[in-house]
Amino acid sequence: MSCSTAFMSVNLMSNNEISYVEFLHECEGRFYFQVLVDETDGNLRTDCFKKSSKCLTSLIQVQNQYLLLKDDNQFGIQTLTIAQQDSPNCKFRIHYYNESDKKKRKGRPVMLYVKKSNCIAVVCCRNAQEIYTKEKTALPENIDEDIDEALFYMSQLPDKTNTYMLESCLYHSNFLGFKPLKDNPCKLTLALYRKVDEVDESVEVTLLRK
């Protein structure tokens, strides 16, 4: 009989205690498990978020203009021609994560990033108002904490085409939106807004698939 390998989590109950184990593989009718315990402190070893295989590439549209990452790693919004829309600095990858705790907020956890020549620039929350980019060689496969500066909960608005809200995982009720630059109020940049009304267009983001 051939051997097969798969992974899943199950609970075993013994003496009124619950032990968390991971199914490793089956071989010739025998099942092999591993107890999920951190050897350093004896605590349960779990991952709050795991990177999935799902990833979308989109343009982010703002009032008939588009969000892009400039050479100084700052966000800008400008009009783009059809040819310019193929530039890597305006193509945002949206990578989905799976969450171990299903009782979280509305939407799916995602990370947003732009591909650069030798790294990726990941959208992160500096604080409850400001957004910045962090350069990485790759996205994390697993996140052990239940909050992260680069994770957002993305949910689609049912009554609007290609329109989404992206809530910060780190700051509850704060969503990605756009605000005027301090030194140039006529131009917008990416920021976090606290949503106070049920309908708030300032935190609605239009994604155009590429």
Number of domains: 2
- The CATH class of the largest domain turns out to be Mainly Beta
Number of DSSP-assigned strands: 16
On the 0 to 100 scale, the average pLDDT is 83
Element string (H = helix, E = strand): EEEEEEEEEEEEEEEE
SS field, number of helical segments: 0
C-alpha end-to-end distance: 46 Å
Low-confidence parts:
1-19, 37-41
- Give the assembly state of these chains: single chain
Helix/strand-derived class?
mainly beta
Largest sheet: 6 strands, antiparallel, barrel
CATH topology of the largest domain: Trefoil (Acidic Fibroblast Growth Factor, subunit A)
Task: Name the CATH architecture of the largest domain.
Answer: Trefoil
Helix content: under 10%
- The rounded Rg comes to 21 Å
Inertia-based shape: globular
Q: Strand order across the biggest sheet?
A: 4-7-8-12-13-16
In percent, how much strand structure appears in the residues?
Answer: over 45%
Write up what this structure looks like.
This protein folds into two domains: 3-35, no CATH class; 49-209, Trefoil (Acidic Fibroblast Growth Factor, subunit A). Helices cover 0% and strands 53% of the residues. The chain is built from no helices and 16 strands. It has strands spanning 3-14, 17-27, 30-35, 49-62, 65-69, 75-78, 92-99, 108-115, 120-125, 131-136, 142-143, 152-156, 163-168, 174-180, 188-194, 205-209.
